[in-house]
Amino acid sequence: MENIKYFKIRVATLGPNRPITFDLYIQLRGKHVLYLRAGEQIKAEKIAHLDRADVFYVPEDQRQAYKSFIFQRLNDEDTDTQTKAAVLRESSLTLAEEIFEQPDVNRALNESKELIGQFIDFMEQEPEGMAFLVGLSSHDFYTYNHSLDVSIYSLGLGAVVGYSGEELGELGRGALFHDIGKRNVDVEIICKKGPLDDVEWAQMQKHPQFGLKILTDYNCSEAMRACCFEHHESFLGNGYPQQLSGPEIHPMARIVAITDTYDALTTKRSYNQPMSPTDALEFMKTKLAGKYDPDLLDAMYSVLFKMKAS
Ligand SMILES: [Fe+2]
Ligand SMILES: [Fe+2]
Fold first, then answer.
1. Is a pLDDT exceeding 90 seen at residue 39?
2. For residue 102, what are the domain limits?
3. What ligand has the least distance to the C-alpha of 154?
């Protein structure tokens, strides 16, 4: 039996020919095996053979060393913005996964502060960075991937419409936890491939209420609760669960409504092919006309337009 705890990291966070400052393990038949020692480095040719989604493991007691390593990469003057965006997103993905697997909601909420804070710092330091982050969205659908991407898009859209500092942080965290209520939906329903039947759908549609209860129990801000409880409301008044319309919907929830749908449309699921960014926005503007705050939907174009220009 192994007593040491490990956490997952993704290959793309390491970078070629750069000495690591922690020990790196791989998993073989359920056991962790030392792959590289602190001070050694992975050669560029080796990294090229690895998938960016491949994972390594680092002993939990070396977490601080890994964090400092990432911090240095994000603040390295010789590293370009695109690489920094990739390092930030890849290191955040495993963190988001941990947050979503964390049974202790208090810890999850606390850890999210650091995660969202890193994105906001990055946006401040690298004004062009958001364009790259937006372009790095993954195409697989897992709750933590989806939640992280919705959070990144919401930070981008929020910044474009004038949010900053604490408020932007609340928006990012609200977006990260918008689907937290899905913890209380049967896992068979969450993982079902293909459309849900009426009974399953009714349970799924309760996730905003379930989420509101969780976030209220943990004293989250009104903004975070609104992102969670109101992200399936529709500007026209025919959403759920409260059938709020237009300005009755919290402005941050209106943002999450857009970024949530946008991410779902551009992500591959078992039963549909992903749409391109332009097609997804066109679809939202025409086929789903009236569901979203029109000004925010227009602003979403500029978040994504920057992506295309880069
Ligand atoms: Fe949702
Ligand atoms: Fe969602």
1. yes
2. 81-309
3. 2
